[in-house]
């Protein structure tokens, strides 16, 4: 319908006694929840219907989805449990795009203001955008406005879905144009905003997005604006495409008695089957550690997660899934020998456990790298783990990425085959910012400046500040001013500096 626009730590996670841990699998999702089967089936089916409705709305075809590209969703008890997984942030749910597969963490109960369903729909809208328009750049206001516009989808009793409902949980900021005027909203990022401005920015982003999408006369302006952003225009230059739109006009718009909405009819929303599986006792027991590992740990939290995983895994030595989680937890805690051993036990139980193969190779690679090992035969042996994983799952981006990384870790020039593997990983998981940066470096070394620019731009426009974003921005400038070779050299120097900084931090932590 919008074809015109774009062609925590888990130690304290509650585990309810009344239900089992269930895995629900569908075309686009893999959901883990400690709930009743009927509720999980309904939950997953609504997500599939939501995906189908967005595809109808935005004119996005639905092709084959590799298993690694499905969104894995962990449903935890409440917002407090989410925030334990994300210390220092007040998010009610969060999503991360990774080469190993996109993942989201959402609460089963998020309170009375922002529903758990809206949290998840917001996060999935990000995944939908980053997957389907991976080579496009979007400023923060549209990225968040798009997510909010889709998040309030209304499932009607006749089976249809209506988009455009007002997010009541954002009412506080709807008219606060004095705090976040349009000139501030249209900046590439929200990172320089205060906490209050950031919250209001979401409200005003939804308002501007709703106005541009539902008013036929304004759609051309949005198209022109996004084209300007994606052809290298500055934020100030691109904003000229929105001439005539003002804070006052938006304030009048939001005060209308009724706002326009867009409905996708029920006959367009048929979805496929939902498969349910009750987790084995060991899988259920290890789930708190698995959730923590999947959410991400640091030097302080990794040892506790490994301790938890080790204590549980002792009771399930022949469970491939349990030993695979211990391999991850031990790897995160930099206990590489323990990680190798756990991965080996996982493989003894199931030789086709792809993740266990990857951790077996990753642990061996970490040991070799820490020892400054350069023995070619040893590195060939390490690569066999990644090649075995790739043979079992040819569309697993992480296996391809690790194969390439093994050459850099060994201080060897990546082979043509390794570079091809990395570029295929990038094609499979274009939503991964790390992969895009690595692919850009390979493309620059090949003299493919335009393709490298395509890889770098979405990273440079990422709404979340990080060293990766800074590197992408610097590389784009160098590419524009000095060409591919200079940009490749800059990327290498920046990456080396990051590695040195990380190594120094590790040294300080251990001293």
TrEMBL record:
Residues 1-19 form the signal peptide. InterPro entries: DUF1570, TPR-like_helical_dom_sf. This is DUF1570 domain-containing protein. Keywords: Signal. It holds the Pfam family DUF1570. SUPFAM superfamilies: Metalloproteases ('zincins'), catalytic domain, TPR-like. The keyword Nucleotidyltransferase does not apply. Residues 120-231 form the DUF1570 domain. It comes from the Bacteria.
């Amino acid at each position: 319908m919008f074809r015109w626009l774009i062609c925590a730590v888990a130690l304290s996670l509650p585990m309810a006694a009344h239900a089992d841990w269930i895995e629900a699998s569908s075309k686009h999702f893999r959901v883990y929840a400690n709930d009743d089967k009927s509720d999980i089936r309904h939950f997953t089916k609504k997500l599939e219907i939501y995906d189908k409705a967005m595809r109808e709305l935005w004119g996005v075809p639905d092709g084959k989805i590799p298993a690694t590209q499905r969104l894995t969703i962990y449903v935890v008890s409440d917002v407090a449990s989410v925030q334990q997984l994300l210390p220092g942030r007040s998010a009610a749910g969060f999503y991360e795009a990774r080469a190993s597969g996109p993942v989201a963490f959402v609460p089963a109960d998020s309170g009375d203001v922002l529903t758990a369903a809206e949290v998840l729909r917001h996060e999935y809208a990000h995944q939908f955008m980053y997957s389907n328009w991976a080579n496009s750049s979007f400023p923060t206001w549209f990225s968040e406005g798009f997510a909010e516009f889709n998040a309030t989808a209304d499932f009607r009793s006749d089976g249809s879905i209506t988009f455009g409902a007002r997010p009541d949980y954002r009412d506080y900021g709807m008219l606060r144009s004095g705090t976040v005027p349009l000139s501030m909203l249209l900046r590439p990022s929200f990172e320089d905003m205060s906490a209050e401005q950031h919250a209001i920015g979401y409200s005003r982003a939804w308002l501007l997005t709703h106005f541009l999408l539902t008013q036929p006369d304004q759609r051309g302006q949005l198209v022109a604006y996004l084209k300007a952003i994606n052809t290298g225009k500055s934020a100030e230059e691109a904003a000229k495409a929105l001439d005539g739109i003002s804070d006052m006009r938006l304030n009048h718009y939001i005060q209308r008695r009724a706002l326009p909405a867009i409905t996708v009819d029920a006959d367009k929303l048929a979805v496929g089957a939902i498969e349910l599986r009750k987790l084995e006792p060991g899988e259920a027991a290890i789930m708190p550690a698995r959730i923590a590992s999947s959410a991400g740990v640091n030097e302080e939290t990794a040892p506790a997660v490994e301790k938890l995983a080790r204590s549980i895994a002792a009771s399930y030595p022949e469970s491939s899934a349990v030993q695979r989680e211990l391999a991850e937890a031990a790897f995160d805690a930099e206990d590489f020998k323990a990680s190798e051993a756990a991965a080996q036990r996982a493989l003894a139980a199931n030789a086709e456990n792809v993740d266990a193969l990857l951790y077996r190779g990753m642990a061996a690679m970490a040991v070799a790298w820490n020892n400054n090992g350069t023995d070619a035969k040893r590195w060939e042996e390490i690569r066999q783990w990644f090649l075995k994983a790739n043979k079992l799952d040819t569309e697993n981006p992480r296996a391809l990425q690790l194969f390439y990384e093994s050459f850099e870790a060994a201080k060897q020039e990546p082979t043509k085959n390794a570079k091809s593997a990395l570029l295929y990983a990038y094609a499979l998981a274009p939503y991964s910012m790390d992969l895009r940066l690595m692919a850009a470096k390979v493309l620059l070394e090949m003299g493919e400046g335009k393709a490298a620019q395509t890889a770098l731009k979405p990273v440079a426009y990422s709404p979340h500040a990080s060293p990766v974003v800074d590197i992408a921005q610097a590389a784009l400038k160098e590419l524009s001013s000095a060409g591919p070779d200079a940009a490749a050299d800059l990327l290498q120097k920046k990456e080396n500096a990051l590695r040195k900084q990380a190594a120094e931090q590790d040294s300080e932590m251990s001293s």
